[in-house]
Design brief:
By secondary structure, the protein is α/β, with parallel strands linked by helices. 44% of the residues lie in helices and 13% in strands. Helix 2 runs parallel beside helix 3.
Length: 134
């Protein structure tokens, strides 16, 4: 996400801590696991160190394959090992259940196909004329 380049990670985590102090509501972090990019035990340990002491929950999301990207989903054993490492570091964690992958309807896959569809260009043109947006 482009906004990720605007703020330093430490600033975002400080804002999360402040939010918890003000609201008492637990923070949920979504962590997309990409094979060979951020799915090792070392990555889990680094993530745990960043989150240590926070009232938070990590939702692990094994990345869905998208034809135009080189991202590969870690195998189930690697996902489970990552989860176990976070738990051993006292981080609350779950693995997101997969749905729709078999029909390219999972997170990220539908949007990609929609963005490239001929119908989208026609819809965007109509929306611009009427003043509407997605």
């Amino acid at each position: 996400m482009p906004v990720a380049y605007r703020y330093e990670l430490r600033d975002v985590l400080d804002a999360c801590r402040y939010y918890f102090e003000q609201t008492g509501r637990r923070i949920t972090f979504e962590y997309s696991l990409v094979k060979g990019v951020n799915d090792t035990g070392r990555d889990a340990k680094e993530l745990a160190a960043l989150l240590r002491g926070m009232n938070c929950h990590v939702n692990l999301i094994p990345v869905n394959p998208v034809r135009e990207r080189s991202y590969v989903q870690p195998d189930p054993a690697a996902v489970n090992a990552f989860k176990n490492k976070l738990e051993s570091e006292q981080i609350n964690v779950t693995v997101r259940r997969e749905m729709g992958r078999d029909i390219a309807g999972a997170c990220g896959q539908l949007r990609k196909s929609y963005m490239e569809s001929p119908d989208k260009a026609e819809k965007d043109e109509k929306d611009e004329k009427s003043g509407e947006k997605d």
